[in-house]
Every structure is written in C-alpha cells, then in structure tokens.
Amino acid sequence: MNRLKFNEGGQPVYVDDLETLQENDTASMKRLLETLTGGVKAYLLSDVSAEVVSVDVDKSTTTAKIHGGVAVVDGEFVSWNDTTVVLQTWADPIYLCIKRTETDNRTFEDGQTRACVVETKGYISTDKSGATESYCMYDLPIMAKLVRKAIGVNDEPSYKQLKVTFRNGYSGTVAYKELADVYRYKIDIRSNNAAEIKGSVDLFCFDDAAPGGDAFNTPTRAFVQTENGVQDFDLYAFDREVYADVSLPFDDVNSAAGLPVKIIFDLPK
After folding, report:
1. pTM (2 decimals)?
2. What is the pLDDT of residues 90-127, one digit of tens each?
3. Torsion sign over Cα 252, 253, 258, 263
4. Less Cβ around it within 10 Å: N or C end of the chain?
C-alpha cells in the first residue's frame, strides 16, 4: 500500500494523490471487514425490522413496512429508508436493490464533459429490475453472526428436536433451544390430511414435559394464506396437547392440509 509523504516547501498536489487517499481508505476497510466476516460479500449490519400496515381482503394482499437499515456490500456501506411493500404472500421475495449512478458532470480542460462522482443508493423493492445489483433480504446474513463464526465463537445454542406425537396427519419439525431467559421454539409442520375439520385443529402432543411448561399461548402468531388474504392465528397448549387457535372452516381453509404452521416464539423461564 502506498502512503503519501508530505514535505515542506510548497509540495504540488495532483489528482492521483486524492485517488491514493481514497483507495487506501477503501482497501483498508474492505480487508478488515473481509477478515471479520469470513469474506462474505453482502450482509446486514443488524436484523431487519418490519411491521404489517394493512391487509386488503378483496385483493388478497398484505401491506408491510420495512424499516430503514444498513448493509455492507463488497466493503461498501449501503443504507435504505423506511419502505412500504405490497405482498401477495409472505413468501414473496423482498430485495435490497443497489443502484450506482455517475453524477456531477464537469467540463475538463480538453473540452470533454465527464462524471466525477459515483452515487450509490440502496432501496427495498419486490422488483429487482433496473437495479445495478440486488440481494434477496431473506438470504442476507447478519454481521454479528458472521464475526462470531469467523473468530470461532458460537455463543448461541443450536435447536434440539423435541419428541412429539403428531395429530391430523401433521409432520415436520418441532424444536427448541434454551437461551438466557427464554425457551425459543421453532415449529415448521404441515399436514396431508384433507378431511374437513370444524373448530380448532389438534397439531401434536409432547411425549415428555415441554420446556417452558405444558400449558401456554404463543406470544407471536403464525400466518396462512387464504382466498381472501392472510389469516393470522396463535397456538395454545394444555396438558401437553398443542392446538392451532383458529376456528375452521374459514375462506378456503377447511382441513389440516390447508393449515401449515410455521412459527418461532419464546416462552419465559
């Protein structure tokens, strides 16, 4: 790496000197970030937060607000502002789009006009067309996790599979991990049982005592797509039996096969 040497006596300054200063700063930051994150090209500085703004039953759409944040792409910090997106389902991709534009045109001594600034802007969209480059938000890792992995620190336990007996044709994953103050559950199950059900849906039964207690209501909610939009519901447990707290039938959902359950929630210790 070249460093400028400063001397007294009216040292001349050239554009190349400014280029050296910029390249040194960029290269140093890029190498440091590559070391800390294991060389991953694009990642988020922190988790993205979002909230549901409204649900349009007639159009079967959900309007969500993605809060502003910052990502790092190839060593460059890229920020975006609060953005509202309209989704058909929660599986619709949401992209971090990056657009680079040459601006600040100046007339040079040779009479030619050239851009002297490259402006980099980030924005959130469900459509990545027109972007210089784009990344699916769901696929971007978090910097803190990359750093822990790079330095060989794993301070968060992995999920452990729980022994359960499934009901109504359900199968999939029921797991948990123990954190400092809570038990975190991850449930991802679906059913092949198309028989019509009325009332709440029996999902599974814990074979052993459930971490956090055999009776609970989930503090967060799961979602299912219907012909009239998105229906949300929570889960409740009593005496180790876990149910979807929703009354079937509704819209086009009248069976366990139409009610997949995907949810992560915490239960206090």
Report:
1. 0.55
2. 778 999 999 999 999 999 999 999 999 889 999 999 99
3. positive
4. N
